[in-house]
Each structure stands twice: as structure tokens, then as C-alpha cells.
Known about the structure:
Number of helices of chain A: 0
Distance between the termini of chain B: 37 Å
Number of strands of chain B: 11
Shape of chain B: globular
Largest sheet of chain B: 7 strands, mixed
Order of helices and strands of chain B: EEEEEEEEEEE
Distance between the termini of chain A: 37 Å
Strand content of chain B: over 45%
Number of helices of chain B: 0
Helix content of chain A: under 10%
Oligomer: heterodimer
Structural class of chain B: mainly beta
Number of strands of chain A: 11
Order of helices and strands of chain A: EEEEEEEEEEE
Amino acid sequence: SQQGEEDPQALSIQEGENATMNCSYKTSINNLQWYRQNSGRGLVHLILIRSNEREKHSGRLRVTLDTSKKSSSLLITASRAADTASYFCATPPLGSNYKLTFGKGTLLTVNP
Amino acid sequence: DVKVTQSSRYLVKRTGEKVFLECVQDMDHENMFWYRQDPGLGLRLIYFSYDVKMKEKGDIPEGYSVSREKKERFSLILESASTNQTSMYLCASNAETWNSPLHFGNGTRLTVT
């Protein structure tokens, strides 16, 4: 069962530009998490935003959460070629820390 | 830093073989997970375990089983490998504390011929 869905599926930008990815989900959540996956590797946790938070920052990352619209966005500012990766949102269902379900991801390409 | 180690990066097996994928974590995490990742389908949860000898089915458990005899080790077993099990397999772990993020291994790319 798919909980998070990222949009767009693919995004190509130039180095220095900002990249925005969106995530929509279906049911109530405790938190929403963003992960990055470099080609052929495992996923790396980037940031977690709790359901009572609206915005969170970590370095060049900014995440927003709108629980009324069941959506989140990930903004990467001043992108670098090294940011080229797939980005996934993930949510655990209410009352569970277990069954984290992932979207299909956004493939971000940052051109030098 | 948490380390999740998967025993093989690449594996090639024949149809009908019994296949073991091993995963070890070094942070005393209670929860461990097996996902498979396929193009266009994203990550799908196969099985997870929240304690030694405890397991629960994920979304696609058919054709798989798991074993967790020790807290740090979680094995995925393909009883009789089939070509449709060719995939990238990802192991992950997290703590039982609320809002604990997942830590992933680097994956095992399994090809069944």
C-alpha cells in the first residue's frame, strides 16, 4: 500500500539553482521523513518533521508540512552536483513505528 | 554512527536455489526490516522484526521467510528463488523510540537466472 507519493518523478536543474520536491500522503501521520538514495546505494535519512511542526531546516534543506492538505515539500537550496540522487518521503501510520511506507521517489539531476 | 551491513553487494543465483541474504546492525536496534526495490515500484516492505524471534509480514511476503535468532542479525530467505525475485534488497533498522529514523544497508542486488 502506497502512503507517500512524490512529485515530480524527475527533476533536472543547474548547479546553484533551488530544487523543490513534493510529497502527498493519504492517512494521518505522526511524522514524515525524507531520505536520499545515491545510485546503487542504500537510503540515507535526511530529516524528520513531526506532525505538530510546520517547517524544519537542516543546512541547505528546508522541509514544510501541511497536515490539512496531507502534503510536504523538500527544498534544497543552492544545489550542487553532489545532490544528484533520488529523494523519497516516508511515513509511519498512526500508532506504529514499524511499517514505514515509501513513495516511488523523485530523481533529481543537478547539472554542473 | 549506525552501521547496517549486508553480506553481499551482488549475488547471482539459479532458479530453485535456496538463497540467504544476511544483515547485521551494530547499534542494538530493536527493529529490523527487509525491503525490495524495483524500478517504477519504489520500496516495498517484505518483512520486519521488532524483537528477537518476532516477525511480521509486510506488504509482499510471498515467496520469502525471515529469521532473527540474535538481536543484531536479520536474515531474508528465498526458499526457492524465482526470476521475479530478481531485485535490489535493502535491509534497515531503527530503535524502538518514537520517531526513530531508519538506517539502511547498501543493498544486495540479486539476480536469479
